[in-house]
Here is the input.
Amino acid sequence: MPENRLISLDWAMKRLLRSKSNFEILEGFLTELIYKEENDKIEEEESKKYLKIEEILESEANQEKENDKFNRVDIKLKNSDGEIVIVEIQFSSQYDYFQRMLYGVSKTVTEHLKLGSDYGNIVKVISVNIIYFDLGVGDDYLYHGKTLFKGINRDDTLKLSTRSQNRFGKTKVSELYPEYFVIKVNKFNDIAKNSLDEWIYFLKNEEIKSNFSAKGLDKAKETLDIMQLKGKDRLRYERYIERRRDERSYAITKEIEIEEAIEKGIKQGEKEGQKKEKILIAKNLLMQGLDANIIINATGLSIEEIEKLKKE
Here is the structure.
């Protein structure tokens, strides 16, 4: 294991980033991700938004198990605005992952609405999904999903009334609904064009370049140094990386086997189709009274197959 490599974010979320002293790392990443578009429009640095973690919330998936084969890692936190952010890292391909994202958000919404509370107290949930497989069809490596209500006839966007804006402290309808971020790590081309790309580079390569300046990366570089892991923790981490590598290999092997089976099936189907076509031609030529040798040369069928067709 190279000495300049850093601890992967998924392992760090289970063991290191739950400490308040390390909140700065996740705060930096989430600020760059969630507020990037908004902050890019603001010139004054002091006016830009910064995500502050109020507390880490527990969930069943937070618990680490040495023999965990599902490769599911998530951390659930509440920010200083009272919003809940779910960060999930997924290595293994899952055909219904879109629905899983929806389930995770829906479950969080219902869990945090107290019995008898008004709908106006529903918490805003932000779902951050860091995935290492090809989800859906798309060429980008970063996607953002939110809810908009568009007019069917006038193509306008439904807005909040002034009273609703004052009541909920939001200016847009979409700000009341869950938001989704999907980072397709393997689609990233390793060229960091901005501060958010620097984080994605780290997610893919577990390495932070010396010229990177994104929020939280300095702290990550210091805290996630593999060389700081001692004794059992170092061995545990190395075993974890080996398991993750094996699972990726198994997944790739399975995909290759499926592709080969499909290709074999197609070729077999084509071969059977060609054979049927040759038999049909041979039958027509026999009906015209042509010599068997001529039919054999024309179709490639054997003399036995021609004789069999004569008897049918």
